Amino acid sequence: MQTDEQLKQIVKDKYAEIATQSTADNKASCCGAGGCSTEVYNIMSDDYTSMEGYNADADLGLGCGLPTQFAQIKSGDTVIDLGSGAGNDCFVARAQTGEKGKVIGIDFTPAMIQKARMNADTLGFNNVEFREGDIEHMPLGGNIADVVVSNCVLNLVPNKDGVIKEIYRVLKPGGHFSISDVVLVGQLPDALRKDAEMYAGCVSGAIQKEVYLELIRLNKFENIIVQKEKPIIIPNDILKNYLSESEIVAFNNGGAGIFSVTVYAEKPKGIEITDQTNGQAKASVCMPGGGCC
């Protein structure tokens, strides 16, 4: 059993490799992490090509949804993209927030940061920046973002609760997130669940859907909505690397499911407190558990 740090290093090494591969090689694999299948061109990702701001050089085919399509980004917003890769969602977000807004991408793989910065320079964007850092400890101050997006990244992080807490910290009161991720319904076979390559391939790092949603609720987010859900089918020619023929049949007929979900939730706007000197209500950004009361 790998430690959290070992799992994170596996992901970092794999995505450093992906950053130097061709887009075609990345898209021919499960989350770009290997296990190329002859049955599908790409197992998880959705088509970005019709999205305003789409840039083919930044699309490595690593996602499992279209969070920026659902993120309700407005002109002038500050947007943070977690696990920003080569910048794909950042550039789509930039088209939505406009020149008056700001987009910050965070990724812990130096090769990805370098690739994203080169893409931003080529496009001439001066309000999109990329910061190297761990999304469990974001290199950002608190209460700065209107919107947080992420695409097929939290499933790669061992400490998902820590990331959700960080999302809460960096969002402004009343801000929201839209995150696409991989979740499970039912139990994966042990061989898939324990394999490090399948962890980097976004599958074995996924957790149960209800656990995922409960983590969001426990971290005080409100108005939680599953905006989109789709099944992810792992082709048999990938499964055979991990399971016997009989195990594949049992898995395909066992009721366990792997899904891509796009989840929306809001950080509370705050509450009103009473000015005890005159009995009048006074606006405050005092947040539950924030200690300011």
Overall description:
Helices cover 31% and strands 23% of the residues. With 293 residues, it is of the alpha/beta class. Strand 9 (273-275) and strand 10 form a beta hairpin. It has one domain: 3-Layer(aba) Sandwich (Rossmann fold), CATH 3.40.50.150.
Topology record:
Elements: H1 4-19, H2 23-27, H3 67-70, E1 78-82, H4 88-97, E2 102-107, H5 110-123, E3 128-132, E4 145-151, H6 160-170, E5 171-185, H7 190-194, H8 196-200, E6 207-208, H9 209-218, E7 222-231, H10 236-239, H11 245-252, E8 257-266, E9 273-275, E10 280-282
Parallel strand pairs: 1-2, 1-4, 2-3, 4-5, 5-6
Antiparallel strand pairs: 5-8, 7-8, 9-10
Query: How are helices and strands ordered from N to C?
Result: HHHEHEHEEHEHHEHEHHEEE
Question: The biggest beta sheet, please?
Answer: 8 strands, mixed
Q: What class do helices, strands and sheet pairing give? A: alpha/beta
Q: Report, as a whole number of angstroms, the end-to-end distance.
A: 44 Å
Q: What is the domain tally?
A: 1
Short description:
Helix content is 31%, strand content 23%. It is α/β, with parallel strands linked by helices and 293 residues long.
